[in-house]
């Protein structure tokens, strides 16, 4: 019976090609607009590390006081002094610090020009904390952190560029006139948003290429390639040492806490540390600390671009308008067939039969609209860079899940839109139609 209803629907659609084309176009354009914006929103708003987002935390300490805070919030990074104090205390299961670096790489082939490689100075715990995958080798450990070794973990793309993709563990590369020994090659890994470096605005930046020990970077006076916020007074210190041990915030801290009791204990530790600094005369205000997990951190810093939310809302509104137009077109189409409906009812067809026939016809319109929507979605994703920044636009892509969702939304929306016209058509009285015709 379902195939029979589809056949009747196909005949009806061919009978009014212009009206059918209008309905298909209305559904296609509405679905395409919503799917393109949804593809962008999905790319920028997902949980970048769902398996551990509730266990990874950003600890923040207020080193400025209520006079210089924004809305009572502490700075979004730590001073070197506070960051090292947290590391020495070692109150977390794992902990790391990081700051961005940019170094000039000298290729082994003298005929090639040097180039910049960006990445992070961090601790060895960075890699197991964030579950970074390795293609060759392994991350360094606490021994290398403490000994300040000149070692580096490089990305797969940099390994391809320097060593043609071969296992480069143990080989050496030159960066900023310093020799580094490669201890590991990371596989492709670039969580979006890059939750661990929101302070520097790198949530949608190009993938990092190098990772060097934080302790070695400090020892070699490698400057930060990220933000350096010295507060309202703008004091940076007269030299590097005074800046390093001053009140400028530039270090991003992360800790891993695997239970609620450990989270509570770490909060108490932060308050205790702030009280110690108060007693020492460094702070003259009550502890004002924060400990946010990944999702809370993303929400607090508004990592999802507001234009993606606005665009998605507008696109869904446009889809709703298209569905309203489709309801009107279906109502006009179905009610013009009142004589046909009257004859069918007189021959024994029930209202349920009318529902099945017309909803099957609407489903065919939705499927055709979905196919058109897929073509328009592909075109829209290709041109999404005209609306969004390139680093965000390149994240949107048409995959199998989006293809399935596009077709599902198109069919489901059209069938839902057809319920009212179908209900009106099913109310046709056979006797009136037979008498008048």
Brief rundown of the structure:
The chain has 437 residues and is of the alpha+beta class.
Count of beta strands? 10
Largest sheet: 6 strands, mixed, barrel
Strand order across the largest sheet:
2-3-8-5-7-6
**Average pLDDT rating:** 86
Q: What's the total helix number? A: 16
Low-confidence stretches: none
Distance between the termini: 28 Å
Helix share of residues? 40-55%
CA-atom Rg in angstroms: 31 Å
Approximately how much beta-strand content do the residues carry? Answer: 5-15%
Helix and strand succession? Answer: HHEHEEHEHEHEEEHHEHEHHHHHHH
What is the overall silhouette?
Answer: elongated
Structural category: alpha+beta
Overall number of structural domains: 2
List the helices and strands and how they pair.
Elements lengths: L1 H14 L1 H29 L10 E5 L19 H10 L4 E13 L8 E8 L3 H4 L4 E4 L4 H6 L3 E4 L1 H8 L8 E4 L2 E9 L23 E4 H6 L20 H5 L7 E5 L3 H20 L10 E4 H7 L5 H30 L2 H9 L4 H32 L7 H4 L6 H27 L3 H7 L1
Parallel strand pairs: 3-8, 5-7
Antiparallel strand pairs: 1-9, 1-10, 2-3, 2-6, 2-9, 4-7, 5-8, 6-7
Account of the 3D structure:
The chain is α+β, with helices and mostly antiparallel strands. It folds into two domains: 2-47 and 305-436, no CATH class; 56-300, no CATH class. It has 16 helices and ten strands. The protein has helices spanning 2-15, 17-45, 80-89, 126-129, 142-147, 156-163, 214-219, 240-244, 260-279, 294-300, 306-335, 338-346, 351-382, 390-393, 400-426, 430-436; strands at residues 56-60, 94-106, 115-122, 134-137, 151-154, 172-175, 178-186, 210-213, 252-256, 290-293. A six-stranded mixed beta barrel has the order 2-3-8-5-7-6. Strand 6 (172-175) and strand 7 (178-186) form a beta hairpin. The two termini are 28 Å apart. The chain crosses the membrane at residues 21-44, 310-332, 365-388, 400-420. Keywords: Cell membrane, Membrane, Transmembrane, Transmembrane helix. Pfam families: FtsX, MacB_PCD. Residues 314-430 form the ABC3 transporter permease C-terminal domain.
